[in-house]
Write a structure and sequence with these properties.
Layout lengths: L3 H18 L13 E2 L2 E2 L4 H5 L2 E2 L4 E8 L6 E6 L5 E5 L16 E7 L9 E9 L4 E5 L2 E6 L2 E6 L9 E7 L10 E6 L4 E6 L4 E5 L2 E5 L2 E6 L10 E5 L4 E6 L5 E5 L3 E6 L3 H7 L6 E3 L26 E5 L13 E6 L4 E10 L2 E4 L5 E5 L6 E6 L5 E5 L24 E7 L15 H8 L4 H14 L5 H9 L10 H12 L8 H9 L6 H10 L5 H9 L8 H11 L6 H11 L2 H4 L2 H13 L1 H11 L7 H12 L30 E6 L11 E5 L3 E8 L8 E3 L4 H13 L15 E4 L7 E8 L5 E6 L10 E7 L1
Parallel strand pairs: 31-33, 32-38
Antiparallel strand pairs: 1-2, 3-27, 4-30, 5-6, 6-7, 7-8, 9-10, 10-11, 11-12, 13-14, 14-17, 15-16, 17-18, 19-20, 20-21, 21-22, 23-24, 24-25, 25-26, 25-27, 28-29, 29-30, 33-36, 34-35, 34-37, 37-38
Length: 781
């Protein structure tokens, strides 16, 4: 058990790391409040709110707090606009060896008198153990509680779960904060979620499935178990954020210096084409966070995003226009803040627009925002897990006596000059209310109405949905949410499978809609496996659409179409189009498309390609597609476990003369060996294993280069390409390096030891680790 003295040692160590990493940006000094042993005492909700800085024109309102609620970690709203939350006092304790029933629960919080504060609380389910997420589906609630997904249903309408069924098993319990989260209903009528490095190892619909951290989706009807499961992309670390734009662009946030990643192409497309691909891109533009609290406990990525969580966009219209559909809210509880993350279009993808800094930040060293989402009223709702201790490492921190298990707050951030979302009454048994909700300017109501229409199988609403799609108007940011959701609603009702001609014609007409998001939705929802539909799509003009996202969607859609000579022409034309060649995602989609329809593309290539007529820049991609050269789409910079210094790479490693086993210490930022000895010129294999809770690598450098490489690694981490290069700086000081090794995984690296005897330092270059995680390789004759 860690003592208070041990806690203060952690704080002091973190201060040393922060000093070594650079001065943090703070606008105020440490708040002079009552402390115990140097640790700030918890504050009342009112006192804590006084210490939260807000943007001009905004106000913070308290919706609920202790003793009415406990530790909130997830939230969503039902069709009545009532807030549901998960409360957990068990998190982050280990699951192994504990009883099946825990102390956590799902609570309904309702404001019955309209004063903006919850006054009615109802326990929907209790006896849960570390549930981490939930979503509404098929008349019930799906709950992520590793190792299971549970499906809970209220059968008699009393707001209490009557049934609890395990619908999926296999989620890892190696680390409780690395399990599944972010369950939500997608615009494609699938259920989406994310998972950390605890991953999944089990059976889904009869098939053995294993994967680590990343994003996934599956069919919405889970009553008979999870089906239609699709692993979408592998991420770099624990993935605690998942967000959809109003046009169904998909983003995630990950811990440890990856607060925003964009899902460009789901993994299944690469798999179908037999291409080794990587469908996500780290798009954040800065390393630094901007805390105003003076006490930070961060074991990784000091001064940056070590615990980024949530990636919800502002998808209502109560905030100023600058927020609409381009600003996401990413919590960093260890920094006591909510980041304002603004994205901009870059071709068919996205990038962060500079550093939006803080949406909220507090001087209160207990303020712990773990979720920020737009609610039914258009306000930004924030879950405050209120705790001085956020992280659960080093060992013993999870059960430390100073860890709070009682306090929690829920806030609403409102724009004082904005109008709340118009009150929407939604009743599942009154279809006309669902159509009205589809017209809301708040995406919450649109997606809720879509879900209820699809669940209720209201095919009789087809004409009203078609009318919404035919409405060709756009709003101030060139979107039409009702039309977009109406397309996906028709899809969810099964009316776009080829049998309902009228619905198909309306959606085909939407390929020319004024709103690019509607055109993209039409492309994605149409059944291009039907040859006539594929021909109509190719003739519609979307392959030359001015919006790159629409063209990208069209190329990916055609991978599922029947192979025809027309598709061969499409690929050749696109691969010689400068705008598509220079777009990362477009080029990858064309590689996939060319592989899926290689014969007809090759016929077109042989007929039309003239090597003397095309410049090198124009002909490069089309030539690659034809010859199959360089079709792998992996991210650049991975060292793949070979020596990366000049003259040291092992082309065909011999059997090692010596094997060195090194482990990261569990709960510490140290190797289990501080030194080892090898003979000059010998073949060495390092077996590096990582039982810890965060990623590590092992980098061997030249004698005397430890501090230079530390500094270079810190600078690399602050840039936009740190993860791309595995946080290994491109310097001749680096001799050998492993890849980043995920928690509970191993890595082998074989190299020829330097010929010159000496002391060669080794270190972990992951942000914040090198200060204590290093040692020496002694090279002797």
């Amino acid at each position: 058990m860690v003592t208070r003295l041990g806690l203060l040692w952690v704080v002091c160590l973190l201060a040393v790391w922060c000093d070594a990493f650079g001065e943090l940006d703070r606008s105020t000094r440490w708040l002079e409040t009552d402390t115990v042993g140097g640790v700030q005492e918890p504050l009342s909700p009112a006192a804590s709110m006084e210490l939260i800085q807000l943007p001009d024109g905004f106000a913070l309102e308290l919706f609920a707090s202790e003793p009415d609620i406990g530790k909130p970690i997830a939230m969503d709203w039902d069709e009545r606009g009532r807030l549901w939350i998960i409360e957990t006092v068990d998190y982050p304790n280990t699951i192994s060896g504990q009883p099946d029933e825990g102390d956590d629960r799902i609570l309904i919080c309702e404001d019955t008198d309209g004063d903006g504060k919850a006054d009615k609380f109802k326990v929907f389910a209790e006896g849960l153990m570390i549930p981490t997420s939930f979503t509404f589906t098929q008349g019930g609630v799906l709950v992520a509680q590793a190792p299971h997904f549970l499906f809970l249903k209220d059968l008699d309408g009393d707001d209490v779960a009557d049934t609890r069924e395990i619908v999926l098993a296999g989620w890892g319990i190696f680390d409780t904060h690395a399990g599944p989260s972010n369950l939500q209903y997608g615009l494609d009528n699938k259920l989406w979620g994310t998972v950390g490095y605890s991953g999944f190892d089990g059976r889904i619909d009869g098939n053995v499935v294993t994967f680590r951290q990343g994003a996934f989706r599956f069919d919405r009807n889970v009553g008979d178990g999870v089906k239609g499961f699709e692993y979408l992309a592998a991420t770099s670390n624990n993935t605690w954020g998942l967000g959809f734009s109003e046009e169904f662009d998909v983003f995630m946030s990950c811990t440890n210096n990856a607060h925003s990643v964009f899902l460009g192409i789901p993994q299944q497309y690469f798999k179908n084409a037999g291409i080794d691909g990587y469908g996500i891109e780290k798009i954040d533009a800065h390393y630094q966070i901007h805390p105003i609290a003076d006490t930070l406990l961060q074991l990784d990525v000091p001064g940056g995003f070590t615990a980024a969580t949530g990636h919800s966009f502002y998808t209502a219209r109560s905030f100023p226009k600058e927020y609409w559909n381009r600003t996401a809210f990413i919590c960093e509880p260890t920094g006591r803040l909510v980041h304002k993350h603004v994205v901009e279009r870059v071709g068919s993808g996205f990038a962060e627009l500079g550093d939006g800094k803080n949406m909220l930040a507090s001087k209160d060293s207990w303020f712990s925002p773990v979720g920020a989402k737009v609610g039914p009223d258009g306000a930004l709702w924030v879950l405050d897990w209120y705790n001085f201790m956020i992280q659960h490492t080093p060992e013993g921190m999870a059960t430390h006596p100073e860890r709070d298990i009682f306090r929690g707050r829920i806030y609403r951030l409102v724009y004082e000059q904005g109008e709340p979302t118009a009150t929407t009454e939604v009743y599942q048994d009154r279809p006309e209310t669902l159509i009205q909700a589809l017209k809301s300017d708040n995406m919450f109501w649109r997606i809720t109405a879509q879900r209820l229409i699809v669940e209720s199988k209201y095919v009789a609403l087809a004409e009203e949905l078609q009318a919404l799609i035919r409405n060709d108007t756009v709003d101030d940011i060139n979107t039409n949410g009702p039309a977009l959701h109406a397309i996906w609603t028709l899809s969810g009702l099964g009316l776009l499978d080829g049998k309902d001609v009228r619905s198909l014609e309306v959606v085909l007409g939407a390929l020319k809609h004024k709103a690019p998001g509607v055109r993209k939705a039409a492309v994605q929802a149409l059944p291009v496996r039907i040859p006539a539909i594929a021909r109509r799509l190719m003739a519609s003009g979307v392959l030359g659409d001015p919006d790159n996202r629409v063209r990208l969607a069209a190329y990916l859609a055609l991978t599922e179409a029947e192979t025809t000579p027309e598709i061969g022409k499409v690929i050749f034309d696109a691969a010689t189009h400068v705008q598509d060649i220079g777009d990362k995602w477009m080029a990858q989609a064309l590689k996939i498309l060319a592989r899926m329809h290689h014969r007809v593309f090759l016929d077109e290539y042989v007929t039309r390609f003239d090597s003397t007529a095309w410049t090198a820049s124009d002909g490069t991609l089309v030539h690659q597609l034809a010859t199959g050269d360089k079709l792998s789409t992996h991210a650049l910079g991975a060292s793949n476990g070979v020596a990366i210094g000049a003259g040291h790479e092992e082309k065909a490693p011999r059997s090692p003369d010596q094997v060195v086993s090194i482990r990261a210490r569990l709960g510490e930022l140290r190797y289990d060996k501080q030194s080892f000895t090898v003979r000059a010129g010998s073949t060495v294999r390092i077996e590096f294993s990582n039982p810890n809770y965060t990623q590590h690598n092992l980098v061997i450098v030249k004698p005397g280069a430890l501090d230079r490489v530390r500094h270079a690694a810190d600078e690399l981490a602050r840039g936009s390409r740190g993860f791309e290069f595995q946080y290994v700086p491109a310097t001749t000081d680096v001799l050998f390096a492993t890849d980043l090794v995920n928690p509970n995984e191993q890595y082998e690296m074989t190299f020829t030891a330097p010929a010159v005897p000496g002391r060669y330092p080794f270190l972990c270059t992951f942000p914040g680790h090198a200060e204590t995680m290093h040692g020496v390789m002694e090279v002797v004759d």
